[in-house]
Amino acid sequence: MKIIVPIKRVIDYAIKIRVDPSKGAKAVQTANVKMSMNPFCEIAVEEAIRLKEAAAKAKTEAAEVVAVSIGPKQCSETIRTALAMGADRGIHVQTDADVRGDYVDLQPLGIASLLKGVVEKEEGGVDLVLLGKQSIDSDCGQTGPMLAGMLNAPQATFAAKVERGDDGAFTVERETDAGTETIKLNPTDGPAVITCDLRLNTPRYPTMPNIMKAKKKPVQTISLEDMVTELGLNLDDVMKPRNEVVEVYEPPPRKEGEMVESVDDLLGKLKEKGLVA
Asked: Least CB-packed of 10, 55, 170, 228 within 10 Å?
């Protein structure tokens, strides 16, 4: 079983995003800002490793987890994090440092086109592509479904539980607005595509021995231009944004709250603002 896990490098979820309007309408401050793996991608890596460990425990088949990242040179650090968690090898499609992946330059359609090429290039085929349901910088949630469409692959989104049957089919419990539903992804000649939600698991912390081992695991680096040429794609089509980000700005500061002495005072204030009858 071979599992591909696309991962993304983003500003750490605990960091307050700052925008510098003096540098343009889309200028997000990234200098000296902590970057880390997208939290939903971490969940996808963890689930891939658990499926690999389950296959090893059952002694049914050998399993391999491949972490893939598209972005600047620093994405290699994100791949090393996935390798320290338990992935077996990495693939880095390296872009120029000024190419933004937060929906400004590289958008889901271009990323899905590249990932399709990565999947089709893998020798021996791929059984599963596990992605985070969305990234926390652009919040699109489009890459997984687009990739499934391009591969003509069965897919399940917002996965809260993933199991693999003896026949190779993946059974997915997925989140919906009304609760959860269970879907079986029947085996095909290609991979299944699953996007992961928060309830799926809690990612492990890499141990120091595994961090050291990750430094010796193989990571293939290929430039975006070479990758596009190898796949027979057009660089302008991959890089051309289908939508334009007009402006990025910080949310307005919240107004200071007002303390009241009693419930009657609270009701009076709410009536005064027209919030209750």
From this structure: 55
